[in-house]
Amino acid sequence: MTVASAILVYTAAMSWYTVSKHSSFTTYAWDLGIFDQSFWTTVNLGMVFVNTCEQHLVESGSFFGVHFSPILFLLVPFYYLHQSPVTLLVLQSLIIGLSAYPIFLIARERLREDTAATLAVIYLLNPAIHGVNSYDFHVQSMLPLIFNYLLLYTLRWDTKRMVGASILALSVQEQVVVVMLSYVVFLVVHRTLKGARWREPGAIRGEIIPILAVLAVTVLWWALSASVLHHFNPDVPKHLMAGQNFALLEVDSPAEVPLRVLTDPAKAFRAVSYDWFDKNVYALSLFTPSLFLGFLSPATLIPTLPWFAVSILSNYPPYYRLGFQYPALVVPFIYVSLIRGMERLNTSLKEGNSVSLKAILTGLIVINVASSVALSPLSPFTDGFNLSPAYIKPCMSQRSRRLAEIVALIPPQASVLTQDNIFPHVSNRLDAYVIVPDIHDDPETRSRSDKILWTLDADYILIDERTDPHGTYRHAISLVEETGAYTLEASYDTIQLYVRKTHLGN
Question: Over 70: is that where the pLDDT of 90 sits?
Fold first, then answer.
């Protein structure tokens, strides 16, 4: 009952927070609008998650040309019932909230039931989890639930469900392949520590085949992902390859990073040293809520190594700051390692150690409450944090109400061009477009984006200079002034809604 209540409270609180952010125009095309439009085109037009936000990167417009995430199909029926960004925000909060239940099951099998319930509640206080939940909608938000069940089945050695959960994890995004490869290493280490006798005949069926099955599924999924991505996006632009996120290593794509680290230690050191303070704070923020007890069971942390390597080698702040979706890749393993560390500690206490497990649990409660107060996007003490958009607090002002009224003037069937933070409010149509922020590192992609902008002929253009996070309203004003094709229909302060003159009276 305690765990169920905690999940309900968490889901309600995070749903309120994220929906309030949306209502106050602090959600964005990247990435709530992208997903809302992708679900809308799938449900209403039978397309494969098509959106217009990244047509300068993916000519087909399909999200599957950027990331292979077939797990999204599981959410289509829910979106069909209520076609709104709000559906995605509430679903995300529920899915993350439910991830506490397998944590409870894992802990209950190793510790007392009341301790397990407390650990599940503590898990839901984790500010890194809140950060994943608070920044728009991201497919990675499904990873904590899946990874926690994957670890539950692994520790039980329920091999059929373990392989099934592995497939589900891979279906979240193609990048999970790297985590799953390191997870295979964890499986070997884990079973060895459990006393697996690899040379005995029974080990082939009981140990080796399940591990090889996970490895085979992972490799095959990698090949399938590459094929699907190529199908939807055969000509990948430089910007989408994300080499700019590892600029200090001077690579064209993340796939080149391992070789560059091995062959050029000087560049690797420069990359690791970049934003070194922020990277240390990030790691401490992830491990401090567990009081570092997970290091008593270090094998469980093996699957986190690839992402931490990405974090410390990158120059892209979202990879090493709270408030983004990426901690979802590591928090489950950190938390389960905490439980396994407490299990080992409990064993040592029974052998006469003077430290009380109750005192440790109290310490965990205190540090998690303190961490949540200090770092959670929901905390009033984080007002003004600039770690990520997750920390922008919702505020239903007269301005946001007037902006909502002006959005309502746009007919549902009309085409509309707008800015990042307004796009999710008009994205439930095919002909909604967002003004792409400047791309400095890839002139070809920038040129493609500009060409799309100047050939849209949108029925409406809506901008708000004051709330535009990228200053892209300037492009819209240039379009209005240079084409002479638009007239002002409504305004409030710096909010301006233009309508195409030929659309008047339609």
Answer: yes
> How many CB atoms within 10 Å of residue 318?
16
* In contact, 326 and 317? CB cutoff 8 Å: no
For residues 316 and 310, give the distance between their C-alpha atoms in angstroms, rounded to a whole number.
10
Structural contact between residues 335 and 103, judged by C-beta atoms closer than 8 angstroms: yes
Residue with tokens 């047509």: 55
Indicate the pTM of the whole model: 0.95
The reported pLDDT for the residue numbered 353 is: 59
Residue 335 lies in a domain: yes
Residue 389 lies in a domain: no
Interacting residues of 85 by C-beta distance below 8 A, sequence separation 6+: 22, 27, 32, 33, 35, 36, 137, 424, 425, 427, 428
d(C-alpha 480, C-alpha 488), whole Å: 10
| Residues 326, 427 share a domain | no
Same domain for 303 and 347, yes or no, is yes
Domain check: are 108 and 189 in the same one? yes
Residue 454: the pLDDT is 86
Same-domain check for residues 424 and 332: no
User: Over 80: is that where the pLDDT of 195 sits?
Assistant: no
DSSP characters for 386-406?
Answer: -S-GGGS-----HHHHHHHHH
Query: From CA 265, how far away is CA 478, in angstroms rounded?
Result: 47
Work out whether the CA dihedral 252, 321, 38, 56 comes out positive or negative: negative
Q: Report the number of distinct structural domains present in the chain.
A: 2
**DSSP summary character for residue 5:** H
Q: What does the pLDDT average to over 455-470? A: 93
| Cβ within 8 Å of residue 26, ≥6 positions away | 389, 392, 393, 394, 421
| Together in a domain, 376 and 405 | no
Domain that holds residue 499: 398-503
105 domain residue, yes or no: yes
- Residue 250 CA to residue 110 CA, distance in Å, equals 47
Q: How many CB atoms lie within 10 A of CB 82?
A: 11
13, with CB counted inside 10 A (0-12, 13-18, 19+), is middle
| Residue 213 shares a structural domain with residue 132 | yes
Whether 398 contacts 454, CB under 8 Å:
no
Give the model confidence (pLDDT) of 375-427 as tens digits: 999 999 999 888 899 999 998 889 999 999 999 999 999 999 999 999 999 99
Nearest of 475, 452, 459, 480 to residue 416 by alpha carbon? 459
Considering the domain architecture, whether residues 111 and 222 belong to the same structural domain is answered as: yes
- Token pair for residue 422? 């307004």
Query: Residue 349 and residue 24: Cα distance in Å, rounded?
Result: 51
Residue 268 lies in a domain: no
Q: Is 90 exceeded by the pLDDT of residue 441? A: no
Q: Under 8 Å CB-to-CB from 479, ≥6 apart: which residues?
A: 417, 453, 454, 461, 486
